[in-house]
């Protein structure tokens, strides 16, 4: 019997467990891999993410490891015109965007949890609910036959979430684009003076972005409108690297092609860019019978705004806040009340998540499809002036603080269970 079961030890899963720990609730995380997964190499965290990390108590620790970004540059490969984007500090805590190693973020979050909070190599095969003594109980079955009963199940298991499928959410759909990520290593230093900037190059159906992590490492990302020849799922890293350099990104300045040339091949990944229709988020079942979802399990989105990890951290704080408020009112985690708290969490996150998914998709669509005069107009006018304001507002979002329940008794199971 567990208080809360979280499926998935990614950013959303670990952050949710930390948020619950802060409000006095112990969670068991079930992770199918045999260790913390570092797929993706790095991610950009915008000011709204740092508000969430501050609520989780780890912002200062991470900020000390990551230089901030003060601006970005978007260059049109065809016209050579460059748009400069400034990232103002967050009005609440002065936070700026920062690049974070994904593995470091996961490790920092995991360090906040009690020992044995994560059970690795645990793949769930089914989720059920049943009523015991008048109370709804969640039953999770693992592939090794283990059966776990819990008051709450939170799916943080990615875009192909088993929990989301159990809730009845429609599967994510393809955006028609694919993405390649890589980490480039320069043992003697890369020499780029872009420690405070994100650099992007856009072309018809293509976008490539770079930002420095250290004076020797650079993270890069490439997105294309469709999977090119040689970049199938079975393609090896060398084939992917060669295809990007010799065909897809050949028109970007040679200095940036050299970054791709220096890629650590073990870091190269290619994935289709998926998203969930925003109306599925607005009207679908995000919560049912003390079961809900967070992160990509709720709102998979294209990476064009860099809000995937940011929104997952927001989810964690919002969920911890609503459950913490329930505990503050009732003194312990009670099954009959936590369902109400989860419902409030889902209601709060619907519009925010749908907005992020929509804005991310539109940003990528407008930036990368300049094949007609209309699309070029939308990119140069609509995106630069209107959507840019929306993006700025997105980064200003405040997910709130976690309630202080340190003086309350620890959560106990109801005697009737």
TrEMBL record:
Residue ranges of coiled coil: none
- The answer to whether UniProt assigns keyword Oxidoreductase to this entry is yes
| Pfam family, any one | FAD_binding_3
* GO molecular-function term, one example from the UniProt record: monooxygenase activity
Q: What is the lineage of its organism?
A: Eukaryota, Viridiplantae, Streptophyta, Embryophyta, Tracheophyta
Q: Which InterPro entries match?
A: FAD-bd, FAD/NAD-bd_sf, MOase
What protein name does the entry list? FAD-binding domain-containing protein
FAD-binding domain location is 3-357
Transmembrane helix among keywords? no
Q: Read off the Gene3D superfamilies from this record.
A: FAD/NAD(P)-binding domain
Record's keyword terms, sorted: Monooxygenase, Oxidoreductase
Q: Which family does it belong to?
A: Belongs to the 3-hydroxybenzoate 6-hydroxylase family.
Give the organism, scientific name.
Answer: Eucalyptus globulus
């Amino acid at each position: 019997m567990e208080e809360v079961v979280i499926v998935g030890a990614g950013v959303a899963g670990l952050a949710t467990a930390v948020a619950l720990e802060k409000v006095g609730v112990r969670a068991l995380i079930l992770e199918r891999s045999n260790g913390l997964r570092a797929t993706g190499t790095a991610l950009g965290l915008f000011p709204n993410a740092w508000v969430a990390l501050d609520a989780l108590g780890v912002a200062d620790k991470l900020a000390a490891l990551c230089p901030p970004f003060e601006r970005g540059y978007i260059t049109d490969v065809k016209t050579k015109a460059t748009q400069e984007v400034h990232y103002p500090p967050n009005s609440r805590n002065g936070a700026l965007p920062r690049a974070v190693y994904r593995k470091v973020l996961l490790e920092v979050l995991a360090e906040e949890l009690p020992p044995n909070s994560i059970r690795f190599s645990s793949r769930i095969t089914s989720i059920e609910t049943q009523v015991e003594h008048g109370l709804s109980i969640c039953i999770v079955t693992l592939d090794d036959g283990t059966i776990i009963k819990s008051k709450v199940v939170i799916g943080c298991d990615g875009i192909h979430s088993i929990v989301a499928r159990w809730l009845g959410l429609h599967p994510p759909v393809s955006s028609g684009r694919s993405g390649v990520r890589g980490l480039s290593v320069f043992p003697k230093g890369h020499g780029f003076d872009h420690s405070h900037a994100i650099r992007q190059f856009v072309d018809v159906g293509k976008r490539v972005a770079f930002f420095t992590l250290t004076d020797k490492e650079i993270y890069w990302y490439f997105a294309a409108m469709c999977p090119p020849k040689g970049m199938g799922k079975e393609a090896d890293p060398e084939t992917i690297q060669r295809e990007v350099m010799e065909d897809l990104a050949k028109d970007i300045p040679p200095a940036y092609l050299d970054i791709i040339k220096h890629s650590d091949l073990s870091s190269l990944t290619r994935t289709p860019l998926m998203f969930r229709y925003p109306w599925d988020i607005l009207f679908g079942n995000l919560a049912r019978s003390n079961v809900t979802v967070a992160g990509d399990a709720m709102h998979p989105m294209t990476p064009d705004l860099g809000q995937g990890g940011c929104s997952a951290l927001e989810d964690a704080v919002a969920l911890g806040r609503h459950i913490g408020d329930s505990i503050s009112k009732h003194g312990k985690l009670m099954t009959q009340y936590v369902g109400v708290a989860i419902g409030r969490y889902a209601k709060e996150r619907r519009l925010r998540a749908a907005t992020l998914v929509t804005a991310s998709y539109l940003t990528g669509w407008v930036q990368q499809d300049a094949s007609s005069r209309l699309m070029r107009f939308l990119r140069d006018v609509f995106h630069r002036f209107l959507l840019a304001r929306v993006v700025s507002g997105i980064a200003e979002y405040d997910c709130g603080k976690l309630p202080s329940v340190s003086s309350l008794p620890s959560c106990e199971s109801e005697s009737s269970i």
